Amino acid sequence: MPHDVDRRPSGLTRRQLIRYSAVTAAGVAALSASPASAAPLARAEAIPTGPALDGFTRPAVATAPRFRWWWPNGQVDLEQIAAEVRTAARAGFGGLEISDVHHSVKSGLDIDEFGWGGAHWVAAVETALATAEEEGIEIDITLGPSWPAATPNITPQSPAAIKEIAHGSVTLSPGAAFSGALPEPITPPEPGVTERTLIGVHALEIVSVAKTTVLRRASLVDLTGEVTGERLDWTAPATGGSWVLLAYWERGSGQRPEGGDHTDPTSYVVDHFSAAGAQTLIDYWEANLLTDRIKSLLGSVGGSFFEDSLEIETHATIWTPKAREEFQQRMAYDISPFLPVLVETKEKYLYDYDDIVTTRVRDDFNQVMSDLYSEHHLIPLRDWAHSYGLEYRVQAYGLEQDSIAQAGIVDIPETESLGAKNVDDYRVLASGRDIAGRTLLSCESSAYLNKAYLSTWRNDVLFTLAETFCGGVNQTVLHGFAYAAAPGAAWPGFAAFSPYNGGVGYSEAWGPRMPVWAHLDRVAAAISRTQWVLQQGRPQYDIAFFRQKGWAQTGIGAPWATAAGIPIGWSHGFLNESGLFQEHSVMQGGRFAPQGGNYRAIILDIDRFRGSEATMSVRAGEALLALAQAGLPLVFFGNWSAPASTGYRDEATNQRVVELIAQMRALPNVADAAGNDDIPVALDALGVGRTVSHASSTLKHIHRVDDGNDYFYFVNAKHNPAKDRLALIEQDVTVLGASDAHVPYALDAWTGAIRPIAEYRRNGAAITLALRLQPAQSTVIVLAPVGWAGTTAPRAVVVETSGDDVSVAPDGAVYLHATQPGPHSVRFASGREKQTLMPALPEPLALTDWSLSLDDWQPAADGAATHHVTHRVERDALGAWSQIGFAEVAGIGDYRTTFTLDASWRPGTGGVRLSLGQVLDTFRVWVNSMPVDHVDLTDTDIDISAYVRLGRNTLRVEVASPLINRLRVVTPAVYGVVAPQAYGLSGPVTIAPIGKARVA
Known about the structure:
Blueprint: E1 66-71, H1 78-90, E2 95-100, H2 111-114, H3 119-135, E3 138-142, E4 150-151, E5 163-172, E6 177-181, E7 197-209, E8 213-215, E9 221-222, E10 231-235, E11 243-252, E12 268-269, H4 275-289, H5 292-301, E13 302-307, E14 317-319, H6 323-331, H7 339-342, E15 344-345, E16 348-349, E17 351-353, H8 358-386, E18 391-394, H9 403-409, E19 412-416, H10 423-435, E20 442-445, H11 457-470, E21 475-482, H12 520-533, E22 538-539, E23 543-546, H13 561-565, E24 572-575, E25 587-588, E26 591-592, E27 601-604, H14 618-629, E28 634-637, H15 651-665, E29 670-673, H16 678-685, E30 692-694, E31 699-706, E32 709-716, E33 729-736, E34 743-748, E35 753-756, E36 761-763, E37 766-773, E38 778-784, E39 798-801, E40 805-808, E41 814-818, E42 822-828, E43 833-838, E44 845-847, E45 850-859, E46 866-875, E47 891-901, E48 910-915, E49 918-920, E50 922-927, E51 930-931, E52 941-943, E53 951-960, H17 964-970, H18 972-975, E54 984-987, E55 989-998
Parallel strand pairs: 1-2, 1-21, 2-3, 3-13, 8-17, 13-18, 18-19, 19-20, 20-21, 23-24, 23-27, 27-28, 28-29
Antiparallel strand pairs: 4-12, 5-11, 5-14, 6-10, 7-8, 7-9, 7-11, 15-16, 22-31, 25-26, 30-33, 31-32, 32-38, 33-37, 34-35, 34-38, 36-37, 39-42, 40-41, 41-55, 42-43, 44-55, 45-46, 45-47, 47-53, 48-52, 48-55, 49-54, 50-51, 50-53
């Protein structure tokens, strides 16, 4: 039986790191009073195991990260399919998305025997689903071979196939006669396109020729009725300028899914703008792919049907057979006279009209096509997915479409880090999700061009996750996990995008072929916990930027906010017209959409997509006026002195927009902001403040509220990855919570620990505390009642101290930490002050004598399996492998050393911090053969107080690398262009004392 779709967080989170540095590892354990004979230190403040918060302390599948799972069509071994499901599941990943993607394979695929959708492909899907059921994870399935969605049972001539308008043109001098066959299309047909239908012929006078050709709109002559058998006799007027004769043909575009051949017969892309296209897709699946066994398994372990971005591509003009009829019905005018300004060649418009803003017509056409995509593709496929208990996950962008609205139509909107130009590109889709009451925003994450087998978690992936999370993403689908083998694939195996056109290609082929795989279970758990937090309750923002279009992945962000507002704590989302008419689009308590963003104010921006025009639809204007009259603060940003309607409208409609805007601007809760610097002035005048405040920095946050508790995800992240630079953040942050009775907690995603915070200042519901975050590092602060999640409250609250930070023991005792000896003062929230003396601390220890066992991964004799060669280095083992004689090595380095804590590290003086210095890539740490739990890959300073002992201690550090240094010499034709990378433990490595004294 199909199971009910339920995406409520149920116990885990997927992507990223979390750490609140001012409250480290539950405090630092005191050294044991035993003599220096290897007696263990006290573990009173060791890794917490008490408080529980289901889904955070115990990550679960619902919020675990997933992989895009690339298959070379159905050319797979069933036992290997099962093994790969087990591998991903047992590493802590919650799902795999089956995608037939093989751009790197240029030949050798047997599409007759192993094509997409064939009997063996179906058997492989059944195997994947059955194994997933055994392992307790989910399987998502892409709706076609590669992308866009396509089926092999249609041809370009089929009514369900995607269509285009191909136009031909000829220029006539004044008075020149045309007689003969109509001009052939400028764009030749694709293979398989054998039919065409003439839909119109126009002649227009040319006004001027420049970047585009300007045509006199009033001169248009419709010659369609004069055509006989694709031949025409017509003479241009003798007076005036030259004329252009345009002929338009509707034909199949012949578009095929990406990445080569997938099926025999060839699959062609379905029409995404007609009901016939979606129905053909559904019918093909029902008749050929959904066996009884698959249907049964989908009901228990199926996650979602998936579609990639809407990459409908043609060198002509995208079209659908009912476009003219639908346009007339929706826009109340005929599109035919405007075909001259709609036709494109290689995605460039060729003509403009002389007397109107031509882009207004194009906007109307784009909106109609967007609506058709929503109504005839997204909605029917979503409802069909539900019939099998699945959700529908879509990257609903790629064209000039209303992606904000579409993010709320599908169950799970998805974005992608490769195409995002900045964090606002994520916020656009997150806003569409929020206003529609959806929970998830998924992200195809961490694909990088020319970084195959070169991507690192510490320098690449964790930075990308930081950016996506602060943009509202809360589900990660990593790009990607590749099936083991394919014809022609060299060691270490098949990778969908490498080699790519002879080059390095796109990253990454994660899985057991990668040395870092052994470390990714903890990364997966940290991501899972973070995503659990980011799926709690509902999001809240300070302000919304209203824009005329819902386009996504444009790089066009919010004025002022991203440059100046976000750096000091402001948060924002985006709304367009569709966002004003959702179920959650209501006023309550002076806020707009309390369950869909909880915005305090709306900033009405000019159209930055179309020449900065001040436009607004009548429908949107009436809704905004009603909100303003109900008390919602509005700010008109930019020059609104001459507003007009969006789209191509009559004068009466334009005048109505003028009147609506004038009524709004006359209200006392509406202000103007001519430039960026005027926005904060206007917000202040309207009494609109922010929830989070701090000095300008790269700190960013997401605020969610669940059951009256405030969750704040903080991260040190870039806004524009190509330009921004990050540095350590150490600053105070003020957060405004829901209740002045709530107290702060720190959640550690790397361990699942929940720790009360004992050092903060309160002003009513506002709490000020200190954050310390390395680049790409994050933390979660929760404001909740005393005793939340089973914790014990601190025995006192510290508001000021001369020490470094304060921690809370499991019994509520408060400890001061300091790296400087001598007297220290503590002032409590009660007003009481306390003096304490921190004893002298021993000198830090530099660890310089190491032994290194280097597991070198190489291709085996068969060219497919991995052969392991061990290199051993004693003493001077620190430094990148490329610097100590192993420039060609990729694999896992096992570093070992010892250190002695003598009597000067006496009991009661505090704890011990290990600093690893420079490390690349992933790492794990053991002290005295015990794995250190708190290893945050963004921070190489690690509290090891709970693991050390007086006397001799052993330290082991394991570092794993990508494979590029080996591939440079194994396959130099592809990877030789990459310089040797500095992998390994470079240090310097030190052991330092931390003073500690109990103060409450």
